[in-house]
Structure formats: C-alpha cells, structure tokens
Amino acid sequence: MIIAGVILAGGQSSRFGRHKMFEVFQGLPLYHHSLNALRQNNLCPIIIATNDALFPSFPPHSDVTWLIETPSHQGPLFALHQLFIENPDIEWFFVIASDMPYMSADFVKLLLQKIDSCYDAVIPQQSARIQPLAALYRRSALATTTKLVANNHRSMKALLAEIRVHYVDFSVNDNVFTNINYETDWPKGDK
C-alpha cells in the first residue's frame, strides 16, 4: 500500500500578512516541521502542494514531488482532488497544513496505525472540533471530491459528510493541532 505525505502550502496567508509557511520557528521554516514529521515516518512520495507564485520561494528538496495547484487558491478540498487525479497509484494521502509548528512524527505514526480499508478518511477530533488538515484521505473518496469540486464546494466538512470517516479522539490540550493564522497566534517565547 502506498501512502503519500502531503503538505498543503498553497494558501494566500491573507490573515497573517505574508507567507507564513516560510516564517522561522525553532530554527526551521514553519512548513519544515510538517515535512520532517512525514519524513520520519518514511512516507513516500512526499508532495508539497503549492501554487506557481509560491513555488520559486521553496528551496530544493531532493525527496519532494511538487503539485502546482491549477488554478491556485481554491482551497484544500480542491488540492486534495487534484492530488487524487494526478497520483493514480497512491491509495492514501496523509495531508498536513504547512502552518502547524508542533506537528510531530509521533502524531503521524499514531494516525497511520488507524488506517482501515473500511474508511475513506481518518480524521482527528478534539471533543467536537475536527482537524481535517492533519488527516488521512483514501483514493476511494475521489468520486465524492469530483462531485463536490464540480459543484463549487470548497469545504472539507462537505467531503466528510459524504464519505466513511474514522474519527480519532485527541485531548483538547494536545498542541499538535495548533496552527498559525495571525502574528498573535505564535505561542509566547516559542518563536
């Protein structure tokens, strides 16, 4: 079974004011924390989904395949759909947003252990809050993403409402899901 590691790095960072994925956190660009978590679990291929405007800003990575979202800025559901279309040999995609400073190899490993062919997605949840941008998606969801994208839906929740999902509980205090949207989101003393 082929499991790809995917970093979603095509956003506009409009709330942050500049491209946050390149901000340095604990000595590394923010997206690199997600990249390292995937690498440490030997996921292959590793794909960074971005857009043609951001692509030149990334340094070369010998172990990374690039997906240039076309058209750009359509959101994570559109990116996932394009990943399914352009990678027909991959069964599962471990998708992580590029703005999660505490993403860890242990989290990735734990979620990988929850893969089950009965499901189309494995989604973390903290109480009633789901975390669809640190989750696993199976190629079996392709027909649903095709329908949703064709009808101009952009919500990951719309996808989850129509596929078989295994929800995995995490503590509301687990900081692995922390994401940075504004300058004020940086944990004090950590940057």
Word description of this protein:
By secondary structure, this protein is an alpha/beta fold. The protein has a single domain, classed as Spore Coat Polysaccharide Biosynthesis Protein SpsA, Chain A. Helices cover 23% and strands 24% of the residues. The chain contains 5 helices and 10 strands, in the order E-E-E-H-E-E-H-E-H-E-E-E-H-H-E. The radius of gyration is 16 Å and the shape is globular. The chain starts with a strand and ends in a 21-residue tail after the last strand. Residues 13-18 have low confidence and may be disordered. Mg(2+) binds at residue 99.
Based on the model shown, name its key terms:
alpha/beta, 23% helix, Spore Coat Polysaccharide Biosynthesis Protein SpsA, Chain A
The CATH C-level class name = Alpha Beta
Fraction in helix? 10-25%
State the major sheet.
8 strands, mixed
CATH architecture: Alpha-Beta Complex
Give the tally of structural domains.
Answer: 1
Radius of gyration: 16 Å
Counting helices, strands and paired strands, the structural category is alpha/beta
Distance between the termini: 38 Å
CATH superfamily: Spore Coat Polysaccharide Biosynthesis Protein SpsA, Chain A
As residue ranges, the low-confidence spans are 13-18
Which whole number gives the mean pLDDT? 86
Taken in chain order, the helices and strands follow as: EEEHEEHEHEEEHHE
Let me know the number of strands. 10
In DSSP terms, counting alpha (H) and pi (I) runs of 4 or more, how many helices? 5
Principal-axes shape call:
globular
